[in-house]
Amino acid sequence: MDSLALGADLEPEPVVDERSTVTLYVNGTATTLTIDHRSTVLETLRDRLGLTGAKKGCDHGQCGACTVLVDGRRVTSCLLLAVTQDGAAITTVEGLADGGTLHPVQRAFVERDALQCGFCTPGQICSAVGMLGEAADGFPSHATEPDAPSGGRADLGPEEIRERMSGNLCRCGAYPRIVEAIEDVIP
């Protein structure tokens, strides 16, 4: 039987609006957008809001170049659908500074020269800020000593920092300086 004849009896599918209106609190500012359901947080930040700090590296959540903070927790924004974040507080590297004053992690990265080409740096900085918060809240990592007290601040030595930052890759190999910069801001 002819393949065209098989489809002749089918009704066309109704057109479904594949967009939704969401409000995102980006760097402290409420922004209401109508977005395609397939748009990621990264695409929304870069293409719709002009915030280009977070980078599209691998587009598979493996390199960390797109790391931002959502409700204070670090996420790979290339994998997170923006439509699922209605009402979320999103902080990008552009939103870490307080006016003209750099965030302590940003300042430490500059002072320690913890970057080379700079492509991964925004994601590294956002990840470091999130990681410091996680450690302060007592979240363990694979490197955390098994007898460490639960619920307390994790001991952030170089090995612990490297483990916690392992989701952020640097092609230039600035890792030693990144670890030093993070050590500089540990309270």
Automatic annotation (TrEMBL):
Does the record's keyword annotation contain Calcium? Answer: no
Region feature Disordered, mapped onto this chain: 137-157
| Record-linked Gene3D superfamilies | 3.10.20.30, [2Fe-2S]-binding domain (1.10.150.120)
List, for all copies, the residue spans of the domain called 2Fe-2S ferredoxin-type.
Answer: 20-96
Q: Which UniProt keywords are listed? A: Iron, Metal-binding, Oxidoreductase
- What is a single Pfam family found in this protein's UniProt entry? Fer2
The entry's protein name is 2Fe-2S iron-sulfur cluster-binding protein
The organism is Streptomyces durocortorensis
The organism's taxonomy opens as: Bacteria, Bacillati, Actinomycetota, Actinomycetes, Kitasatosporales
